[in-house]
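Aggregate trends can hide what the representation actually does to any particular protein. The sequence in question and its structure tokens are set out directly beneath this paragraph.
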Amino acid sequence: MLMLALSYLPEVSGMDEGGSLAMLPELYEKYEEEGCPDWTSMYGSKIKTNKIWSIVFQAYPPNFLDELREISELKLEIYFDRFIEICNKYKEGLSKFSELVYEGIKRKKITVLLSAYVLKNIIVCPALFGVTMSELLKQAKKGHHESIYKLIQIDKSFIGTRWVLKEIRKAQLSGNFEFLDKLGKNLRKDTWSSNKNKKENIAQRLVLVLGWNLGLNKLTHPEIHDFLTELGVCKYEDTDSLSHEIKKLNLRTIKSIEQTVNKTAKKKAVKKTIKKAKKATRRKSA
């Protein structure tokens, strides 16, 4: 159900229209009416998402989620068919999903709108760069320039944070104009809009990244391809292209993780054996 909601995120958030940065006109009007408050501090605190998810789930047609819950325990091959049947059954109601989410957010306080905007950016981050927002923030606050560039692409308001301003002051006084030049380029950049591949694959990348630890990592690549196709977000006709996308996002299946762990364990065992053999040889020599 969450992955289905994610497949609607590009449309709901306006990414399809204005890139990943712009807010839809009707929501921006509300923001402007409230005096254009700052939202940057929300990245460093726990965002209250209960009101946001309440709006999202209320936007689904009546009984739709109940029917999905009923099939959640079915085997994968059976689940796919039932999932499509249910989506087709509620097709008309689902077509109003985005509109209902807009209306729900407009009725709430400005903090709900800004929380939704920040949450969207946090969700988008790993789909863009294959790394979480928290990891980028952690590195950026230590002065890591590449992390700062990526954060600035996602949200221009980071330019006013004390840790970015600190790097700007350092660059100015040390004559590091390369940093200032790159910062300016990333300030003008919207990574969704400027990258055709990412823009066309928004929903697919979001479902992959956010749905990975929810169960996608337990599937084979052909099974993931089938699931994304049924969900209506798959952009590739062949599994090889999808596998390449998965690799770019630094995602690995449970099987590949287990293989890596096994290889590491074998290497350690070999090293241990060699070490013991060397010790035994030294004793004999002595």
